[in-house]
Design brief:
alpha+beta, Alpha-Beta Plaits, four-stranded antiparallel sheet, 2 helices, 43% strand, globular
C-alpha cells in the first residue's frame, strides 16, 4: 500500500474539502483520501495500491475548483 501527501492552496470552506475528497476518491487505484483544511490551505493524504501520476492528481484537484497543488510528497 502506498501513501502520498499533497499540499494544497485555495481551500476556503468544508465544501472545498468535500469536492477534492470526492474527486480524488474516484481515481483508479485510490482507496482512501483524507483532506485537512486550515486557513485557506490544506493537506490531502491519499492511499492506495497503485496511485495515479502527479500530473493526474494535479489535474484532478484543479478540475475540482479553484485549487492549486503546491507540492506532492511520495
Amino acid at each position: 500500500m502506498a501513501t502520498l501527501t499533497m499540499n494544497l492552496d485555495g481551500l476556503t470552506c468544508d465544501m472545498c474539502v468535500k469536492h477534492i475528497t470526492a474527486d480524488l476518491s474516484d481515481l483508479a487505484g485510490v482507496e482512501r483520501v483524507e483532506v485537512v483544511r486550515d486557513e485557506g490551505r490544506g493537506v490531502a493524504t491519499v492511499t492506495g495500491e497503485s496511485l495515479p501520476s502527479d500530473q493526474v492528481l494535479t489535474e484532478t484537484v484543479q478540475d475540482a475548483g479553484n485549487y492549486r497543488v503546491v507540492s506532492i510528497n511520495r
